[in-house]
Amino acid sequence: MTSMEPDLREVMIPSADIQAKVRELGEAVTRDYAGERPLLVGILRGGVVFLSDLMRAVDLPCEIDFMDISSYGAGTSSSGVVRILKDLEEDITGRHVLIVEDIVDTGLTLSYLNRALLARKPASLEICALLTKPSRRKVPIEVKYLGFEVPDEFVVGYGLDYAGAYRNLPDIGVLKPEVFGGAEE
Ligand code: PRP
Ligand code: MN
Ligand code: MG
């Protein structure tokens, strides 16, 4: 029980289930990239909690880097026009790159990232996402390493925010409507 828990209508995925899934995904990555030195790319800011747990579940000499991107104008999930706020520090040419994200919603973020990073000619490029909301998809995205499929609810915790808050909640939960002013998306 955390002090944020009373704001939740329900805990959708308890911390213990997330941690078990992270171990499973880490083992799959460890197997698939055996003998390589993959570069895990966390997408700011939602991806950082998952990345920090996942990297410790990968038993390989991996590296990490970060990107921050933003949609132009209003309607972050509808415009599909994206710009890079912070680029990678590393040159990924010839590298095995694994993008680490908290959630795939419309798919626009990852679709843009895929195109942008493939243009830099990595040896391979795959996606690891903890959550997916298939019902919200606008563009198809191939997620090689996936944690959980979730319904179209406003989920927070484990990196996912509402107005910047709740990212440090260890569980993934659904906010009570009164917490976000009763407004539906
Ligand atoms: C959220 C989430 C994903 C993206 C998914 O990030 O963390 O990165 O949206 O949405 P999409 O599939 O519709 O593109 P957000 O832009 O809220 O930034 P944040 O990670 O800093 O919270
Ligand atoms: Mn994000
Ligand atoms: Mg957000």
TrEMBL record:
InterPro entries (alphabetical): HGPRT, Hxn_phspho_trans, PRTase-like, PRTase_dom
Pathway: Purine metabolism; GMP biosynthesis via salvage pathway; GMP from guanine: step 1/1; Purine metabolism; IMP biosynthesis via salvage pathway; IMP from hypoxanthine: step 1/1
Species, as recorded: Rubrobacter radiotolerans
Signal peptide range: none
EC number: 2.4.2.8
Family: Belongs to the purine/pyrimidine phosphoribosyltransferase family.
Catalysis performed (reactions): GMP + diphosphate = guanine + 5-phospho-alpha-D-ribose 1-diphosphate; IMP + diphosphate = hypoxanthine + 5-phospho-alpha-D-ribose 1-diphosphate
UniProt keyword annotation of Magnesium present: yes
GO molecular function annotation: guanine phosphoribosyltransferase activity; hypoxanthine phosphoribosyltransferase activity; magnesium ion binding; nucleotide binding
Keyword Magnesium: yes
Entry cofactors: Mg(2+)
Cellular compartments annotated: Cytoplasm
GO process annotations (BP): GMP salvage; guanine salvage; hypoxanthine metabolic process; IMP salvage; purine ribonucleoside salvage
Superkingdom of origin organism: Bacteria
Domain Phosphoribosyltransferase: 19-162
The entry's keywords: Cytoplasm, Glycosyltransferase, Magnesium, Metal-binding, Nucleotide-binding, Purine salvage, Transferase
GO CC aspect terms: cytosol
Enzyme class: transferase
Main location: cytoplasm
Full protein name: Hypoxanthine phosphoribosyltransferase
